[in-house]
């Protein structure tokens, strides 16, 4: 006979989901009300304003899609693209490949700009592709590539898109609230993210934002959006159009409570302070990792503070390490994806998890585990280096 499920208390330091604050978990347990209740509509307005602040945008069409980040990605592509369109897609990891998949499923053509995994997108390559494809309608790239831990220069890439009269489509799933992201100042036309990364909310919602240029394109489509559920022409009216709050779908009310609480926490800390906190603990973690005898695959100038791709020592069974950390330390770190599978661990310092206690826990647990498996590492030096960083 099945019983109530009580999960173990884990420390989540993988690529997501991240640790959720007790304050956000408590918000989930508040009484459920109707999704058209005037009180809930007021909450929707507040969520919208808080998301605009987090994205640093005044875009009217800014909202959380009632589904995970992958649905946010699909919402962006399915609304902006039609059959026969041409899109320049920059790929330097797994999630650029998912962009390509979305472009092609819309009946559009993806012109791929490839960079090695672990390197940022090369603006010169993008410019060459734009010159060679003057009929392209959009440029798409991942700001913070979760599969490699690399940050691309979103501002420069968006400037190129605008120079060639293309829409700029940006994956900010891992960057929102973790590193600088300025939707309006950088000229981003469509951006999507997830709640389970640096916002430290529960999985299941995808914040998106569309510029006026993007909205104009959506309004003037030749064909209907192929997805009814993700059609922004319909969702606009639910999130505040001319026919304010017309029924579209039953919103995940309690998940919205959680998102609102997580956004309040970002507001209270300050967005720039949140970016600085992620970088601060990343620097401590890197000091410890290097003293341990390991290294990161991404150069310092392009690293994501919230996602660290750590090289696996020779002869070490990476899955056995992760299994031991989970079973003995209740600590979750992530495996590599694609061409980096078995080559790196992906260790997250996202949102609520980006703190000194977690940095020290991970260094201690990883160091002792690797030492017990015969790796040439120095756990004492790792802890000393992190403590020295924090003592300054």
TrEMBL record:
Keywords: Aminotransferase, Pyridoxal phosphate, Transferase. Coiled coil: none annotated. Its cofactor is pyridoxal 5'-phosphate. SUPFAM superfamilies: PLP-dependent transferases. PROSITE patterns: AA_TRANSFER_CLASS_5 (PS00595). InterPro entries: Aminotrans_V_dom (IPR000192), Aminotrans_V_PyrdxlP_BS (IPR020578), PyrdxlP-dep_Trfase (IPR015424), PyrdxlP-dep_Trfase_major (IPR015421), PyrdxlP-dep_Trfase_small (IPR015422), SP_NH2Trfase/AEP_transaminase (IPR024169). The modification N6-(pyridoxal phosphate)lysine is found at residue 197. Belongs to the class-V pyridoxal-phosphate-dependent aminotransferase family. This is Alanine--glyoxylate aminotransferase.
């Amino acid at each position: 006979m099945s019983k109530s499920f009580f999960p173990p208390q884990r420390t989540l330091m993988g690529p997501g989901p991240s640790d959720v604050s007790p304050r956000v978990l408590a918000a989930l347990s508040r009484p459920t009300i109707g999704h058209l209740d005037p009180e809930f509509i007021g909450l929707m307005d507040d969520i919208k304003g808080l998301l605009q602040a987090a994205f640093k945008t005044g875009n009217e069409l800014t909202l959380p899609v009632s589904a995970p980040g992958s649905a946010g990605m699909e919402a962006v592509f399915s609304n902006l693209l039609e059959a026969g369109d041409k899109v320049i897609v920059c790929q330097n990891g797994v999630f650029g490949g998912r962009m390509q998949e979305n472009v092609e499923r819309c009946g559009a053509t993806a012109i791929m700009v490839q960079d090695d995994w672990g390197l940022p997108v090369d603006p010169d390559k993008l410019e060459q592709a734009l010159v060679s494809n003057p009929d392209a309608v959009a440029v798409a790239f991942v700001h913070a590539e979760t599969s490699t831990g690399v940050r691309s220069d979103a501002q420069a890439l968006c400037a190129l898109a605008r120079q060639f009269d293309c829409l700029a489509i940006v994956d900010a799933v891992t960057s929102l609230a973790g590193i600088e992201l300025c939707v309006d100042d950088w000229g981003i036309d469509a951006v999507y993210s997830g709640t389970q990364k640096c916002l430290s909310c529960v999985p299941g919602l995808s914040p998106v934002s569309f510029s006026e240029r993007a909205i104009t394109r959506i309004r003037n489509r030749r064909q209907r959006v192929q997805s009814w559920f993700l059609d922004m022409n319909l969702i606009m009216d639910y999130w505040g159009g001319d026919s304010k709050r017309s029924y579209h779908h039953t919103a995940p009310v309690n998940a919205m409570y959680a998102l609102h609480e997580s956004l309040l926490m970002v507001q209270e800390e300050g967005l720039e302070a949140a970016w600085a906190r992620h970088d601060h603990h990343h620097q401590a973690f890197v000091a410890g990792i290097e003293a341990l005898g390991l290294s990161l695959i991404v150069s310092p100038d392009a690293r994501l503070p919230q996602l660290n791709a750590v090289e696996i020592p020779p002869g070490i069974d990476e899955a056995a390490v992760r299994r031991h950390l989970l079973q003995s330390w209740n600590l979750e770190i992530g495996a590599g994806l694609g061409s980096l599978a078995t080559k790196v661990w992906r260790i997250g310092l996202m949102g609520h998890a980006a703190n000194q206690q977690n940095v020290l826990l991970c260094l201690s647990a990883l160091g002792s585990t690797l030492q017990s498996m015969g790796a040439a590492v120095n756990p004492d030096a790792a802890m000393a280096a992190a403590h020295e960083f924090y003592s300054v």
